[in-house]
Design goal:
Shape: globular
CATH superfamily: L,D-transpeptidase catalytic domain-like
Distance between the termini: 32 Å
Number of helices: 4
CATH class: Mainly Beta
CATH topology: L,D-transpeptidase catalytic domain-like
Radius of gyration: 16 Å
Strand order of the largest sheet: 3-2-1-8-4-5-6-7
Strand content: 25-35%
Structural class: alpha+beta
Number of domains: 1
Number of strands: 8
Length: about 160
């Protein structure tokens, strides 16, 4: 599955990068309540995707292991074509404020929050992954949507995760 992702991207990227109409997001907005990820360019959404969140989706992430998806403003700061999921892009959580808040609570803020596709080795049905919040706190999309997001975001793209 991992080699398929790398092969697809290497085949698609050169052609897409040459197309002048190829949109690249200048911001990503997550609406947790609506279960949507929006790619934004010039203040307007040009693509919207259905998402799954952490298994305890309501509220802001406060500590490692709370199964919540963080809320706030971050950056997409690293890409992993060889993750345990079909591609992954890391969200820059925790930031200094998150670390300070966790320190005041005497807890570890956690980390490794990603936008990613489906598990390379699924343990549940396809229906489960399409209809449930199932991550440990990450933002999951379909594999085909993950290819779009991978290709339409750049290094350090701002991401805002809203309740």
């Amino acid at each position: 599955m991992k080699s398929l992702a790398v092969a697809l991207i290497s085949l698609l990227l050169p052609g897409l990068m040459q197309a002048s109409e190829f949109p690249v997001a200048d911001e990503v907005v997550i609406e947790k309540g609506a279960r949507q990820l929006h790619l934004i360019q010039g203040g307007k959404a040009f693509r919207t995707y259905k998402i799954a969140l952490g298994i305890r989706p309501v509220g802001d992430k406060k500590r490692e292991g709370d199964f919540k998806t963080p809320e706030g403003k971050y950056y997409l700061d690293a890409r992993n074509p060889n993750s345990d999921f079909f591609l992954s892009i890391r969200v820059s959580y925790p930031d200094a404020g998150d670390r300070r808040e966790a320190g005041e609570l005497g807890v570890n803020p956690g980390g490794a929050i990603m936008i990613h596709g489906q598990p390379n080795v699924p343990t549940r049905s396809e229906t489960y992954y399409r209809t449930q919040d199932w991550t440990n706190g990450c933002i999951a999309v379909s594999n085909s949507d993950m290819i779009d997001i991978w290709l339409m975001t750049g290094e350090n793209t701002p991401i805002e995760i809203r309740p």
